[in-house]
Design goal:
- There is one protein chain.
- This protein is an alpha+beta fold.
- The chain is elongated and about 100 Å long.
- α5 crosses α6, α5 crosses α7 and α10 packs antiparallel against α12.
Length: about 425
């Protein structure tokens, strides 16, 4: 039986005199210095006194406070800490609420959110293609599934029918699903591994050979590496930003999208580096491009335009130069037979034919990290300085007059 009565507690609350009044068995009625009334449960644990709030008065009545205090004494008797037990209960409740919220978020909704968040820098054509692939292959299987429920078997169900005949498309869809589910995990809507991950997961369940053949089938017409210096000479004679963009594309081995949306804030010309954030990279991993002296000098000739962060600004919705600007320039120079992406092949062929740099350095120069997860975990180097030496040699080759290159080649053969 407690020491206090309901009327006595009411009188104490009206008096608003700061202090604690015991009801017995660890239950106290407290008036704070500001006159706020509440209930406390005091107990000893491991020789230390602890206090646990039981709620404000009169929301929590005397009878209710006694019930709560009795419950906490049971927790103590069981050998547990009431405060820790309550925190665990609250966390479990929050987790249940998060799980319930996550189950209301279906894959189609999250894919739309992902495109809205990341698609600002995409061309309209890319946005439509990105969504269309999901509409054709992913949404029929997982579109209405809560993101919490998507498992490996669901991903396999949508990939297997197209893996052999449309391997490249299937792998692109797989990558899109991986990105969306990574976003779900970042938003705490999922836990555990990503069921759409390739390395160390789906590569054990789907044919690697098919994926390799699909890569080989993707052929971009490329300029023979011996002809790159001549093209660079032609481009140097053309005024304008598109010509500089084309030369930056060739000298860095970058993808066209990386160059089109390049921002001045990404460049440190003093340090000779171009740092691209993860969202700008195909594999969604931040990447640093070492800049050869010739590239730095080229960029120093490019004036900045007020009101835009881009090196190569444009008038369209994207704010950057048109996606076909470099291709149009190449066509005007009578190079209808080569593509922007093909310059990466030109660089790679040159590296194979004329250098002795390790394969992993040459591949990483193109932002291709072919190391396994285990290798990457133990070898976290991005080979920046080795890539800098490689790209310096490439820039020197590209910007050397064609006749001099021929002489040098003949000298080496001799």
């Amino acid at each position: 039986m407690g020491k206090q009565t309901a009327k006595g507690i009411e009188a104490l609350a009206k008096a608003r005199q700061p202090g604690k009044t015991s009801d017995g068995d660890g239950l106290y009625f407290q008036i704070s210095r500001s006159g706020v009334a509440s209930w406390l449960f005091r107990y000893m644990l491991a020789g230390k006194s602890r206090e646990m709030g039981l709620g404000p008065y009169p929301t929590v009545t005397l009878a209710k406070a006694r019930e709560q205090a009795a419950d906490q004494r049971k927790v103590l008797t069981a050998g547990n800490d009431p405060l820790s037990a309550r925190d665990a209960e609250r966390e479990a409740k929050r987790n249940a609420e998060r799980t319930q919220e996550a189950r209301r978020v279906i894959f189609k909704m999250l894919a739309s959110d992902y495109m809205e968040a990341h698609g600002a820098g995409w061309s309209e054509k890319w946005r439509k293609g990105w969504l269309r692939k999901l509409e054709l292959y992913a949404f029929p299987v997982i579109g209405t599934l809560p993101v919490t429920d998507i498992q490996t078997e669901h991903v396999l169900k949508l990939l297997r029918p197209i893996w052999s005949e449309k391997t490249r498309t299937a792998d692109e869809v797989r990558g899109q699903i991986e990105q969306v589910l990574d976003a779900a995990k970042a938003r705490k809507l999922r836990e555990g591994d990503n069921p759409a991950r390739w390395r160390g997961h789906l590569d054990n369940l789907l044919s690697k050979a098919e994926k390799k053949k699909a890569r080989q089938r993707q052929h971009f017409p490329a300029l023979n590496w011996q002809k790159v210096p001549s093209l660079m000479t032609e481009l140097a004679q053309v005024e304008g930003r598109v010509s500089i963009a084309a030369r930056l594309l060739i000298l860095t081995g970058a993808r066209a999208h990386m160059v089109r949306f390049a921002e001045w804030s990404e460049f440190d010309l003093e340090a000779g580096v171009w740092s691209l954030p993860a969202e700008r990279m195909k594999m969604r991993q931040a990447f640093t491009v070492p800049l050869a002296r010739q590239v730095v000098e080229l960029l120093r000739t490019l004036p900045r335009i007020d009101g835009t962060p881009y090196l190569f600004s444009g008038q369209g919705k994207t704010g950057v130069m048109h996606a076909n600007a470099i291709r149009t320039l190449l066509h005007n120079l009578k190079h209808d037979d080569i593509t922007r992406h093909g310059f990466r092949s030109s660089f790679r062929d040159w590296a194979n034919e004329r250098t002795h740099y390790p394969r992993e350095v040459c591949e990483l120069a193109l932002a291709h990290d072919e190391r396994s997860q285990t290798e990457a975990a133990y070898s976290r180097s991005d080979f920046l300085e080795k890539r800098r030496a490689l790209m310096t040699d490439w820039a020197a080759y590209c910007t050397t007059a064609p006749a001099e290159n021929v002489i040098r080649l003949e000298d080496r053969r001799a």
